[in-house]
Design brief:
single chain, mainly alpha, about 75% helix
Length: about 280
């Protein structure tokens, strides 16, 4: 039985688990840290009727940034979940792409492989692949094995041999590419989703502010400030999530393009070397 080929790029396969864990963390953080009475009143002077576990009285005034964040309302833990998810997936992609790149500099590896191919030193090329490791080296190693197989083949024509080498490179690349791009679509989604959820929180906060202004008699300054705080906190988290997601997505997309270019460059060199020597 043929063994199932595995990719050389590690990574988290199920991002939904990451999102769930991030939401649990941010919900607990929101309730038990941002909502702690110590961020609204001096410790030991919590008014009667206020829970000692987490704060729920919208009439109170926060005295630090943590209490102000809590005043952002129920949308805050959702935005924090999105933000934390982006951070976790970006760290995960950093680890995965570094493993896919291999142990050495990818530009130097490409140059050394091309030098070995120019000298028809396939043993040296295999040695370089074994030393480099990672996805790029795996594709190159597969291509070199295909080259040697076609070199010994006396049945197929030159064109068929070249086609088989190209097919081998394409198959090896197709195996690695999905793992390189894994979880990046989720980061890209967070770019828009974070901004939209932040906008939703902003609108909800402004509605509360206008409700306070429209009240008969003197406006409720406490309700007005709470609504404005909710709007601005949600706006800040939404912008931060969207900005970080955009930066992370573009950064890792560029790294993947660099790896893909290296694979294409070496693959072209192998095919050209075979065509020139046969």
């Amino acid at each position: 039985m043929a063994k199932t080929k595995k990719t050389n790029a590690p990574g988290i396969k199920n991002a939904s688990i990451v999102i769930l864990l991030c939401f649990i963390c941010t919900a607990c953080l929101y309730l038990f840290w941002f909502g702690s009475p110590t961020h609204f009143f001096p410790e030991g002077e919590v008014p009667e009727g206020i829970s000692s576990m987490f704060f729920t009285d919208i009439e109170a005034h926060p005295h630090d940034i943590w209490g102000t964040i809590f005043m952002g309302g129920i949308i805050v833990p959702v935005l924090q979940c999105l933000f934390l998810t982006v951070i976790v997936l970006c760290v995960e992609r950093w680890i995965a792409l570094n493993a896919a790149k291999g142990t050495g500099d990818i530009t130097k590896f490409v140059a050394n492989i091309k030098t070995a191919l120019a000298a028809n030193d396939f043993a040296k090329a295999k040695e370089l692949c074994a030393k480099q490791k990672g996805s790029v080296a795996a594709v190159v190693s597969q291509a070199i094995n295909s080259y040697e197989e076609m070199d010994k083949n006396t049945v197929l024509s030159k064109e068929q041999k070249i086609a088989n080498i190209q097919k081998s490179i394409e198959e090896a690349t197709a195996l690695e590419m999905p793992s390189l791009q894994q979880n990046l679509p989720i980061v890209a989604t967070m770019t828009t989703l974070g901004t939209l959820v932040g906008l939703l929180g902003t609108v909800i906060g402004m509605i509360k502010s206008f409700q306070a202004l429209s009240a008969s008699g003197a406006p409720d300054s406490t309700a007005l400030s709470a609504g404005i705080s909710e709007a601005l906190i949600n706006t800040a988290f939404g912008i931060a999530t969207g900005a970080f997601a955009v930066i992370g997505y573009n950064f890792y997309t560029n790294k993947i393009d660099h790896l893909t270019y290296a694979i294409d460059e070496i693959g072209f060199s192998i095919v050209q070397s075979f065509a020139a020597s046969h």
